[in-house]
User: Fold these one by one.
Assistant:
Number 1:
Amino acid sequence: MKSMVSKSLWVALIAFSAGAHAESMSGKDVFSKNCAACHMATGTGIPGAFPALKGSKFVLGDANAVVSTVLKGRGGMPTFAASLDDDKLSAVVSYVRQSWGNQASAVTVQDVKTIRANTNAMKVVKKEQPTNIH
């Protein structure tokens, strides 16, 4: 009886772990699903249409600017604020900053939380500003 309970617990633990793992996506997975169609799986982009991320001074520069761009979009790039949670956003930005020969620091979930909060605060400030300033 005791060994049957132990086996049941192990099976439950393994099933739970597999489910939790399935919900989390690696930065590469997030990139493949959301970014690769434009920026290409190799990070080379399409000249004149979608910028390369491989070797990009922008990508290798200020991580806050990269996170903000993914949150808010830029030019023809859509916003991902609603579709990527903080974990996925930190994973994908870290992946981009550390792939294809790029060697920049990773972005933490806390970094993303802070930038997202600041971005949301800026939206509130813009909405509250009067439109008729004399």
Number 2:
Amino acid sequence: MPDFINTEHCVEKLFPVGTTFSFEGKKYQVALCGKPRPARGECKTDVYIKGIASDGEAREIKISVKQKNADFLENKMSFDRACEIFGKDASGIIKQCLLSIQDSFVADNLVYFEKKGKTGAHTMKLGWKFELLNKLSGEKSGALKLTEEQKYDIFAGINLSENKKNSSVNGQIIKNSGVANYILNIDDENLTQDTCLKMLQPIEEYAKFQTIYFACKALNYRFDRNKWDGPRPLSVYVDWFVDNGKLDAHLAFDNPLEHNGNEVGEKLRNILNELKIKKFDDLRGVLSPNVKCYFGK
């Protein structure tokens, strides 16, 4: 399986400037071909092709390249990125997802005295990240309830910032070059121009039949190493607090992705210092009975 960047290059190389291609019954000469590059971040178009027909008609083919074995559509999602994907109702859409699996969060352990599955011993939960995938992944996962229009917006990049929509292609800023209009699902870099063009699917049609899944993955404070995986935005975060000398916790579902791992981790670390927790087992004497813990089998 070729890696993603190589796949993009392979598609791009099929359309050198000055060569011709036939698409939907008409012949075009390639006037421009390249990868759209925003000033920051990523747009939806991976390969931009501009063709000019003999009658002067200009045709833009803006391809979003997808490898068939790729699971992630979006990981480590931030609130700004969620707004680019879902539009102005991003917070409401994500909150609806979270509440659909709320029982799974409530039933989860927040403190691990022993290793369980992939979660190491001596860890405490800070919250859960939010990811988009093309399949279910774990118990904190489900299907997004989206309209056909919302799906189209997601795959095409309709809600991207202006800087990402109007990306630079080979040094030229081109209006809406970052908004894709075709998708190419590929698992072979030995692609011909003809095969590539035949495999293109209009995103507006493709998106209608896609199911997009979300998954929430835990972000943990590893006590023995005194660290966590940085300022990851959290869809649900654990609000740690002290009540009557006991360490307690509340799961916060409001304002998804507006709090991050550093914010929650620093607060927890300060609380542990205040409670004079020197070693992990010291927690046994200060944990509220409300906090679900895993003590091993």
Number 3:
Amino acid sequence: MKTRHFVLIVTSSLAMAACSDSPPPPEPIRSVKLLTVQADALGAHTEYAGDVRARLESRLGFRVGGKLVERPAEVGQRVQTGQLLARLDARDLALGSQAAQAQVSAARTQRDLAAADLKRFADLQKQGFVSGAEIERREATLRAAEASLQQAQAQGEVQGNQAAYARLQAETGGVVVGVEAEVGQVVGAGTPVVRLAHDGPRDVVIAVPEDRVALISKGLEASVRFWAT
């Protein structure tokens, strides 16, 4: 038993000696490549809120002032060319147009009288009863009457147009994006009443923070998602 025990001890010592004589091999040195990874390189994306706007937008108002009695246009409504957007009380404008037409009738009567008077004196001159000076005076009277008639007609057209201006109509098709006057309100000439976004091209307007502007370039792919239609 003692001899067997001695052999085991010697064998263990030899094994330990053999291990101590053979050092472990060094680990190989591996080369690596360093990269600076940014958020964009990982495929990340950023979302920004924006608005879709018409490229052309008009603020429409009346050419004359008055009291607003009707405004069928509402925000979000689609309108066609010539559609009524708002209307003023046109009674005073209609009275003005009627008065102007009365002035035209009076001026036309004066012109006709002057023309008839000239013809009568021209006939008398042929018979030798009036002088050439009388004819010249009648001709001057006729020219003045014709000028007065032309002026009255022009004024009548202006008054007639003003009566028509009591109706605000869409000059093109589009969508009402704002109203700036209510029924019963007195508005002046040129005061905006309705804002109309024209049909046609649309622009997407997005607010981008200043520190992100440099990351955006022409040709960069982007997608648009609408929250509502």
Number 4:
Amino acid sequence: LQTSYESAQLFVTFYRLFSCETISSLKEKALKLGWTENDFLSFLTFVACFYGNSGNYKSFGDSKIVPDIEKEKLRALLKVSAAAQNYSNFLKHYDMIEERVFSLNEKTVTIGLPDKGVSGFFSSNVNKEDTDIIADYFKKKRLEEWNTRLLKNIKDGETVYTIRLASIDHELSNEKFSGATILIERCDYGPILLHTVHWLKKALPFVANENQEKMISMFIKHFESGDINEHKEGSRYWIKDIEPVVEFYIGFIENYRDPVGTRASFEGFVAVVNKSTSKKFQKLVKKAEDILTRLPWEKEYEKDVFLKPDFTALDVISFASDIIPQGINIPNYDAIRQDEGFKNVTLSNVMAAIPAQKINFLTEEDEALFVKHYKDSFEVQVGLHELLGHGSGKLFQRNVDGTFNFDKNVKDMITGQKVTSWYEPGETWSSKFGDLSNPYEECRADGVGYYLSTYPDILKIFGFEGEMAEIIKYVNWMLELRSGLLALEFYSAETKKWRQAHCYGRFVLLNVCIEAGKGLVTIDEVKGDDGEPDLLFKLDKTKIDSVGKPAIGQFLRKLQAYKSTGDYGNGSKFFMNIGNVSNRALKWRDIVIKRRQPRKIFVQSNTLLDDNGFVSLKCYPASFEGVIQSFVDRYSSEEIEALEKVWLRDFPLFNH
């Protein structure tokens, strides 16, 4: 629903298709209809990719996923399927989305505001001017947009904006603003949230402590009312729930897929603690206050008090989201993170699920080091990125009563003069920096990981000393900077836009190190073993400390200065100038795209509860069939009907 208007019904179609009969039965029917073996494999690939991205647009890159099968062939298979016999509206509802599933016109190839792309956060007639008006409304009302969608209507020549809040409750209020009528409507996703609340209430008798009980109770209230303050209150109890054996969080959390960068996708996860790996992270937390003093900005730009968070390594049991991350720093509410605390988690079994494949653009020696030490070095990077990257830095704010949370005499780290900008009441990092907030912040957190991984005592916390510590440091810098080269796949040369926040940030850091010069990073255009154009990436390990660290340090200092003071004008120019994609980089991009490898899909297990109350874990093969069966087993027909009910209501508004 939040991805594209066709995604929800495609989800319903696939659930009914694969729950009514086996994959082998469908394959037999397809072959009788004239499909080839490759046709059917292509179809399964599309379905698995659709499930893995929670929609028909890539969660990592925002470009459209289209079936590599003729439209007529797919329709013929659906027509003879058991689902078509069991559900009277099966084909009728598929008809309503078929054209959009296969469409590759200019407005449907990527996520974006409706006048230029596709989004489930806005009705099909919303444009940038509309989102600016609503952003101003939220700022003046000191509200936040996390769990909202925006609809626009023209009634008797007047613009009517409807701000829908995700909730079970139905309520409507209205007021005038900026020459338009603003309707606040509580009821979005209501039939779906009824099921969410049902299962949360089922979980309440099994909580381990009072914090968990209060947390889940507040989340229930939030989903019932749509009040974001109730989710914030639940998040406060969540950060107080230290070192639980079973970890859980749910809500409208990450705003990567909103073209404006303020509305969040729904997600929820359940995981169990990996105790051995967690010990390393807890040691890092204990030393965090000392480590923070090494970051390359003035102490006034750091939080007044470092609120030691819970930091654990988790093995995911279930993660409902458009992407399964490898590490998380949440909650995302600025005020809570800065003044009350947060949690860091790394997802160990996600990090470990790396397929065996060639590592492009490296020497044989570097490739061998990469394969051998990837997990260990990435564990270091994720730990530093989440705890001391996202967990560091202060936002300068004017309070509602006119006071400030910083000394007005503090010097601007860029100009050397007094600070002249800050966040006003109602402004947040996301609202101030908009769609640049995510790449900017991911870049800052990654840069902190680069910078701090050069300290031997920090690497010792993770169990690496002497020669091994040097290897881990080198592999970390190598894999991260190489990822900045691979990131070019997610840059659109036609629109000159980045389609993925982390990738934009990684490319910026690559440019910082290239511009540092002195042979720190070199990228040569060569011929591959196949005779086709290739690239050779090299990092001079002897210059990481002498050239790389100072360059990253100076860069981070400026990033933090602009972020702390809320200086979007200068901060955006600085960031975008370094992130400029040159003609040389465009040549690299062509080679990167030609040699790209498929992105992995994580196959999730399911927990099953029998009549006696015993829980078992059902695992699935690492295959397209495994992904599909995992999703079919996860949902009930009643939950699918709730999804379809919401989709049918929304169809006229979101049918671009």
